[in-house]
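Researcher: I'd like a structural prediction for the single chain below. Treat it as a standalone chain; there are no partners to consider.
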Amino acid sequence: MEKSQASLIIQNGTVVTMDNENRILTNGAVVVRGNTIIEVGDSDTIRGKYSADQILHATDKVVMPGLVDTYGHGGHGLIKGIYHPEHGWPTGAFYFDATTEDWWHAEGLLSAVERLRFGVTTGLTVVGATPARMDSTVFAKRQAQSAEKAGVRSVIAVGPPDPLISHLSEPWSGTFWHKGKPVKRMFSFRDTIENTVKIIKDWHHGLDERIQVALHYPYLFGRQAAHPRHPFVYNPEEHVSLMIEKADEVKELADRNQVLLHSHAFGGSVSFALKHYGRKCVDRFLDGKVALAHCNGLSREEIEILGSHATGICAVPFTHENILYGPCPIIELLQHGANVSISTDGTAPYCSYDLFKDISRAIWNEWMRFKDQTVFPPGKALRMVTIDAANVLGLGHLVGSLEPGKKADIILVDFNRPHLVPGELIPRLLAFYANGNDVESVIVDGKIVMQDRRVTSVDEKEVIQFAREEAQKAFERQEIRGYLEMDQDFWTSWKY
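Model: Treating it as a single chain, here is the predicted structure.
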């Protein structure tokens, strides 16, 4: 019988499909034609049916869907580690006054390479800190171009700053550097909306679905949990009408353009909205494609309404919000019907894009809360960084599991390593023992972008050098020494 031609076969591996049956094939193979998976099955059967332009041998490796990170921040990659618990870290004003479009391109490339090296093939990136830098389209454009060049799948999240907690001095301004000299330009909420529309038009569904755009609005229901450095007390009589007006505008814009509405939420936000917006208004804002990051410290009332809308949740297991408000109540949200994913909130001030590490962190948070190791099975946690996470981003029809018809976003995890031997109960080893550095090869959209730990889509050394140069230039434009203090207390005391 004549064999059918494929472009790539991955064979002789343990295939963890993350499909509806959660199949694990011990001598499995995945067949790819172009950018699409066409068959998943037994290696011996596949060899008899297909020939391929390229074959990857996966002996002693786990073949699984690329990981999906539902929440991270553009810009943070070039300030990672720069943090002082009393002084904070350079984000809002630094981004708006010290960075250039080349800086955003360098950061985008660096973060894309970091993600793919950790097996994260799809990642959402909020362009900027909470005040997304949308005073021009160039910053989001450069981030999208970085993802394009590195070969990852990306959701670029763009939108206006919050009108009440903008994390910027008013009137709003951004600095553009021309021949080494700063030029300040004022901008408004309306300017950021217009720039958001342009990015959606130019990039959504771009590169054969490899680039998506989401509308990120910082606080859909306000930030009722006190921000440690940006305290704000809402006056319902003064602020609610403006909050509803702006939330209505961004929700209508997201719906009209059929993009995901992505926002933050903390304990008290949804309850505040229920009381002051009204249930009908809250239902309207939660209807459709909506994802909320963090969701720490939610009340039962808030859990129930988010669950009733099957809201996407981007839980962050490793964040100072756990200290301030308590962990995200993952188990209760799942019980009430929410679609929960595990995310990194990468990559500053103490996070990385190693999503594997956050699987066990999320599980341990829930074990500690419930004092019960039977809650939160590792298999469910793995789904929350693959197919469940893809569904949170509205991409479950494209990625998140290894099934015929889906895009070929695949990673190979090397199990020929001491901490992953003897190799029984593989899902448990993936959840508790694997880390991003165990990822050996990465395929995105059918193309090999890393093989044998070597990035093939870009020159990694050039990316790192470019990033270092742009970071240093920005540090010269704005002083950061206050964030870098390491006195004797840092080394010898029990407290700063």
